[in-house]
Design goal:
Elements: E1 5-8, E2 41-47, E3 50-56
Parallel strand pairs: 1-2
Antiparallel strand pairs: 2-3
Length: 57
Amino acid sequence: MDNIARKKLIFTVRPADTFCTEAIVPFQEVISLDVYGLKAGIYIVDINGKKGTFELV
């Protein structure tokens, strides 16, 4: 596997007058990756420490 990686950090912001309920609510976010011009290969994506891979053919 090539060591080709993209690393992103994602932050959230909430209004100052709200509070955290500490309720764990799962969610999903779709993030488009700019792969135009990248060579074929296996790539690693790291979002806030959660890693995944994808392959361009």
